[in-house]
Every structure is written in structure tokens, then in C-alpha cells.
Amino acid sequence: MSVIHRLMHPRIIIGGGIVALFALAALLAPVLPLRDPASQALLYSLLPPAWAPGGNPAYLLGTDSLGRDVLAHLVYGARTALYVAVLAATGAMLLGTTLALLAGYFGGWIDWLVARAVDTWMSFPPVVLALILLVGFGAGINNVVLAIIIVDWTRFARVIRSEVIVIRRRDYIAAARLSGFSHLRTLVSEVLPATLPLILTLFSLEMGIAVIVEATLSFVGLSVESNVPAWGVMIADARVYIYQTPWGVMLPVLAIFSLVLAFNLLGDGLRAALDPKLRQRGGVAP
Amino acid sequence: MTATLQIRNLTVSLRGTDVLRDLSFDVGPGKVVGLVGESGAGKSMIGRVLAGALPDGFAVTRGTATFAGQDLTALPPAARRALLGGRVTFIPQEPLTALNPLLTIGDQFSEYLGRLSIPRAARRDIILSALEQVDLPNPAQMIARYPFQLSGGQNQRVLIAMAFVSDPALVVADEPTTALDVSTQMSVVSLIRRFNRDSSTGLIFITHDLRLAAHVCDEIVVLYAGEVVERGPSSRVMASPRHPYTRSLRGSIPEMSGPLHRLIPLADSMPGIGAFAAMPGCRFAGRCPVADPTCAARPPAPMELGEGHMVRCTPACLEGAAALTPEPLPPVPEPNGAPILRIEGLSKRFAPRRGLWGQVRDPGVLAVDAADLVVRPGEFVGVVGESGSGKSTLARLIMGLETPSAGRILVGDTDVTQASRAARDTRLQTLQMIFQDPQSALNPRRSVERLITQGLEASGAPDRPARARALMKDTGLSADLARRFPSELSGGQKQRVNIARALCVVPRLLVADEIVSGLDVSVQAQILNLLMRLRDDLGIALVLISHDLGVVRYLCSRVCVMQNGKIVEQGGVSDVFSNPQHAYTRALLAAIPPDDAADTWPPATTKDPAHDAA
């Protein structure tokens, strides 16, 4: 079965489709026919969506307490969410995978060091650790990315290390060494490709986690500045008026929910499609 | 005397394709019937038919399996269970996976007796006497142990005790000794044989080893691709096989005594179930050396040869097959020239591992103890011994995959013991390794071409496709496999790729670690002959690590016998095999079933549980 065929998994299609939709909207936000998310229209504050009683067709998803367009805010908020998701997941992946490859392949004291570091790291509650880091670094979106990388590299390191230890024992690694490959070359051309499916899966899941962490931190005001649209900020602002217009909270929550769900579906689907162990289970009888 | 089990025209199908076709044989009380065939022949399917545990999609479509006057295939599962109960029992292949690792031997045995409705109070005595009968030392202690604390042979004895405890009418043993060392195999076989003689239990002995079957069984049924190709008294089938397949099977086993003959390997390998639908005629026709066009069109009818000897072939083919005789093997030229490899006092100690507080977690072991070995150009040296004897560690030491604790390794005149850059280059240009398990030794993400020319990758040599073509030709791989991936290859093809890769940098010595142990005998013969041709054509030398003394006798001119990390005997193959000096060598040789089915084996006095103690 070809790789393409295997990737036609319903979870990958649905998850990937939603992610692609968000990504497209975020990328094209400046050229989409949206209102300026910063422009205020105090006469039209706290409007419900257009279809609800009292809605205004000019503001499709309504307005917030300052009369800013919610749809525009959501779309520009997706830019923030995805910016953090992509950068943080990439950073955590690079750091975690590198350490995992070195630890799993060489073993010995490197492995001991990495394994203990992961153990120690994981004994901190992740959100508290991120909050402490941000208090140290100061608020700001790039510091959020940094905090997520520092907290979450362990997710990659732990899982990939155990995978590398398994692969390391395969004879084809020894065969590569006997073919005159250096350790670095063996790692890059023999070990790394075997862990790629796992890395891809973890990457997708990590993006979902990063979206939640970013929303949490912007909710408490530690992420973007207050004039930059972010879903967490939207929820924080609309929280006060939740009894007048519940839409203000529901819509960004829905956005977070569907994007995180999509990342998880995608990760799950990729695992099912790329993991040889799971693939065999669906195989034909002997 | 009526048969215990009567199988008549049994056919098992998967989606309209006959996986087992028209199978008939009887098992009489106290008789042993051997089902012999290579992997994929359908031998294990029969046990599943009896147990009513066919895989999804498989179904009995024709024929009967009559046990105690009732057709098992027609019985609903509950009635079948009630009828069989403890009367038909099984001995599995992998003793360790068949036992629950979380229960002690006593608890599992007791649970099994519970299923046979034996009251709890009576169980302990039954268990103790059953374990005693299988020669397990100290049954009272044994019942408190867990399976992982026992050796493979001891676990298998426990399972044999369970299989025979209910005094069954029929026991199905599915490759019961395949996972065991030869000496353990011998004691387990003699145990099964003793039980079977002392009771009137019928036994179905499933195995891939024709020579073993000839000694264990009264009757042999040879299966090929789901069909019985030959059936008869074991001495007749072993001494004068008639079917071309049985003859090749017989001709693929290296002889343990007398002059050696060149093995006659079969081309390719057994077709898979998927190919059966397109094979209306004789399923062996595609690989048969004497097939004519009509063979593949229509299945030949069974032909009775008298004395219960049946063969499913045409008279013309039988005649043709009888005319094919193996040629004697030419003597190997004396190796000369300066040694390629010299090993002096090489030792490897795996250091003890200690926990945080200094407690010993792993006592460590002296895996190789002061080994000396010299290999000359074109010389084939065998290293034999049972599992845990240190043979694989020796191979890894030679290749530099492990660091020796003491001793020297010299390649030509260069000391390569220290892992310097130059030493590594010298070593890898002269020595290469063929790995045991081609599944694990071939990176699934590389194509055949990129696998076998892997040795050129680091040096960046240009024309890889041309080198790949030459290597594939040398190792008998067809050129159109170059773009395939390992998952698309058969076991024999994978092992050829494995060999081709080792040959890529034109080494002078190959180190081969159990390279044929996972292969069917007909494929094994292909690989052995390939290695022989490489010696003749390229003058390559070989260190062959093997537990199979027959393979070593066939290929090698010198042999080292290893036990517990020590080389206990070393010398010319003919000297060591005909006149072994060390007790361990003698024991190893005695544990191999002799070629002649008339020789009594296992020796009647074998009652040696000490041998398979952990």
C-alpha cells in the first residue's frame, strides 16, 4: 500500500482539513474582506451574531464590548494561535528530538543525564512552570513560545528516546556502522528516518497543546499585548458580559476547541497510518 | 484396531481457495504421525481444525475428522469442547509464550486441572507426580516458580506434563523442540516418545525437520502448500523418498556421516496462500525439477506404492526424480597464505551492573574467555555451540561491535584491537558481517540497490547501480529486484541481499552469524551453495557461527566448539566430527538425529534433565 493511500485516513482528512482551513484564514487575513479588528464602533457594542435576534448583518459574528468585529478578531486570533503553535512545536521538537537521539543512540552517561533531566522536568506542573518562566522572562508572545519549548521538549525526548533505544538494537544499525558510516551519519540516515512517523505525530499533538497554553496565558494577560487579537484575550474580555452576550465567550472557545480537536485527530490519524505496529493489526490473516 | 483420529479428504478454504487440499491420514493408538513441511505448508492448520480455532475467514469445506466416532468438523463448539476436554491436548512451539508469566507453574497447572473438573484437594498430588514424571528436578520447589525462572527446556517439560496428565487419547505437538537447543531437543523428544509408548496415546508431531521426524514418528506425512505429497512409514520415506519434493527436502539436509554430496536446492520458495487460486494442478510443479506441462494443469491422483506408502505424483515424474542423484562434493583445497585474521586470547567480560546503593543488579558474565583463532584466505571456519555459549559475542568482537576486555585481534599484520580510525578502516575493508535475522538487518526504508551498495555511500563511490547489478548477479538475485524494498522480498531473497551488502566492499573474510537458522531447508541449501560458490569464485574466507553441526560439516574445513565462552575443542571438521575429544563435543554430536532412520535415536538411556537446567 502506498504512503498516499495510507494517508487517506478519515481522521487525517477531517483533522487536516480543519487545520488547513484555519491556516488559510490566518495567512490570508489581511486580504480577506474583514473589518479592521482594531476599529471600534461603540454604538454597535455587544451585538449578537447576525442570525440571532438583534443581530446586524454588517457584523456577521457580532461585536465585543468596544464594538470591534468578532469575526475579524477570531481570524486574526488564529494568526496568533498558529504562530505560537508552529514555532513552539518546532522548537520543542528540535530540542527534544536531538537530545533523544543522542541519549538513545549513545546510551551511557548522556542517556543517564537526559533521562534524569526529563524525569525532573516532568515532575513540575507544566502550566505552573510556564507561568513562572513568563514571570521571569516578562510577558510577550515570543516569550510564550520560549516557555512552551522549555516546558514541552520532554514530551518529545521521552517518547523518541525509547523508540531510538529499540531501533538502536536492530542489526541494520550495526550494518550501517560496518559499512563505514560515522556515528553522525548513522544517526541521520538510519535512525532518524525510522523515528519520523513518531516525530510527525508528536508534532501535531504538540501544536494542539501549544494552542491551549497560548490561550491560557493570553487569558491571564501574559501573552500578547492587549491590542493584538488573541483568543485568550477575547475570552477574558467577554467574560465580564457573559450574561448579556454569551456569544462573546462561546465563539473563541469554539475556535480553540475545533483547532485543538483537529490537531489531535490529525496526530491520531498519522499514528495509525504511519506506525507499522498499528498498521499490521489491520492486515490480512496469514 | 480402529484409529484414534481419522482424517479423510479434509479441505480447508479461505474465500474459495483451498488452503488445505484433500488431506487424509490416520493416527492409531500409541502411534506417532509426523506432519513434515516447510513454513507455509499448512502443517499447523491441522491442529487448529481439531481445536476448532481456525483463523477468521478459514473454514472446513469438505471432508471429515473423526475422533471417538464423531466428526469433529460437524460438531458445534460447545459439544466439541465437551467431547475433547482432556482427551485431545496440545504441546505448543514456544513454551515461554504458552505459559502465563504472572502465574506460578503450580497455579497454572492447578487452573488447568480445574478445567478438567478435578477437585482442588486432589490437585497438588497430581501436579507433583506429573512434574516428577517429566524428570523435573525437585517438583515441590518447581511449583512455586514462575516460567521466566525456568529454562526453555524446563518450561517445555511442564507443558508436556500438562498435555499428558489427563491420559489423553491424542496429543498434538506443534514444533515442540524448534525453540530449543539440540541436546534439550533430544531429551524432550525422548520424553515425548516415552510417554507415547507407555500409554496408548496417539501423537501428531508437527515439524519442519524431516530427519527428526524420521526418528520420532512411525508414519510421516509430507505436506507441500497445503497438500499431502507423500505419506508412508517413516523409515521408507526417509530412506527412499519418492516424490520430487520429498527427495529435494531429503537432498537439502547436510549429511552428518559418510561422504558429502552437493545439496540440491529448490528454486525460489513455497508459494503463498494468495497464489493457490492460480494453481489448479500440482502445486509443486512450479519448483519441480522434473515437471512437465500437464503437471500444472491437473492435480495428480494419489498413487499407492504398497506398505502404506502413498505419493501424489505421476509415474513419469517419479522416474525422472529417481534419475536425479546428487553429485559428490569435491574436496576443499588446503588453505594457504598468511592468515587474514588472528585472534589471541580474546576475552569479553560484561561488567556487573550496580544500582544506586551498590547492590548488584546484574552479576555480569565472561561471555568470551581467552579465545584463539586463525583464519587463512579461502578457509571456512565453523564456530558451534548452544545458545549462550558466546558465539555471537565472538562474532561481534571480531567485527568491532563490542570492545574486548583482553586479548588481541590482528587483521593481516595490523593490530585492530584499539578502535582507532585507521584500525577501523583496515578492519572494515577486510572483514564484513552477515547478520542473523535479515528482517532486522535490512533497513526497511532502503531499496535493495541502496542496501547492497551501502558500503559505497560513506566513501562516495560513483556508479552505485552498476555495482549493485554486479553484486546481485553474484548472489543470484534477479536484476528487477533492485528497486524493491525488504518487505517485498522472501526470506531467502532477504538473506541474499544481506550477503550482497557484505560483499560490496570486496572483503576477504565474512563473519556469518546463524545466517540460515531462520530459513526453510530448501532455501537454506540455496544459501549454503551460494557461500560455497563465493569461495570458489572470489576466494573469500568465512567464519560461520552456527548451532547446526550439519551446516558446519557441509561448508567448513575447520571447526571450533564453544561452551560457556570457552573454545573447548578446535580442529579439522572431519577429525572433530569423527573423533571428538571433548565431552561437550561428543554430547553435541550425539544430540543430532542420525541420517539413517534405522539407527536408534534418541539413545534409550537419555534421561538427563541436568542438561537443560538453566
Features:
heterodimer; A: 286 residues; mainly alpha; MetI-like fold; 71% helix; 0% strand; elongated; disordered C terminus; B: 614 residues; alpha/beta; Rossmann fold; 8-stranded mixed beta sheet
Short description, anyone?
Chain A has 286 residues and is mainly alpha-helical. Chain A has helices at residues 3-7, 10-28, 70-106, 108-122, 126-137, 141-168, 171-178, 183-219, 231-239, 247-274, 276-281. In chain B, helix 4 (105-115) crosses helix 5, helix 7 packs parallel to helix 8 (182-198) and helix 20 runs parallel beside helix 21.
List the helices and strands and how they pair.
The complex is a heterodimer of chains A (286) and B (614).
Chain A: H1 3-7, H2 10-28, H3 70-106, H4 108-122, H5 126-137, H6 141-168, H7 171-178, H8 183-219, H9 231-239, H10 247-274, H11 276-281
Helix pairs in contact in A: 2-3, 2-10, 3-4, 3-6, 3-8, 4-6, 5-6, 6-8, 7-8, 8-9, 8-10, 9-10
Chain B: E1 5-14, E2 17-27, E3 32-36, H1 43-51, E4 58-67, E5 70-71, H2 77-84, E6 88-91, H3 95-98, H4 105-115, H5 120-133, H6 139-142, H7 152-164, E7 170-174, H8 182-198, E8 202-207, H9 210-216, E9 219-224, E10 227-233, H10 234-239, H11 244-251, H12 273-276, E11 302-304, E12 310-312, H13 315-323, E13 341-350, E14 353-354, E15 360-362, E16 365-375, E17 380-384, H14 391-399, E18 406-411, E19 414-415, H15 421-430, E20 431-434, H16 438-441, H17 448-452, H18 454-457, H19 464-474, H20 491-503, E21 509-513, H21 521-538, E22 541-546, H22 549-555, E23 558-563, E24 566-572, H23 573-578, H24 583-590
Parallel strand pairs in B: 3-8, 3-9, 6-7, 7-8, 17-22, 17-23, 20-21, 21-22
Antiparallel strand pairs in B: 1-2, 1-4, 4-5, 9-10, 10-12, 11-12, 13-16, 13-18, 14-15, 18-19, 23-24
Helix pairs in contact in B: 4-5, 5-7, 7-8, 20-21
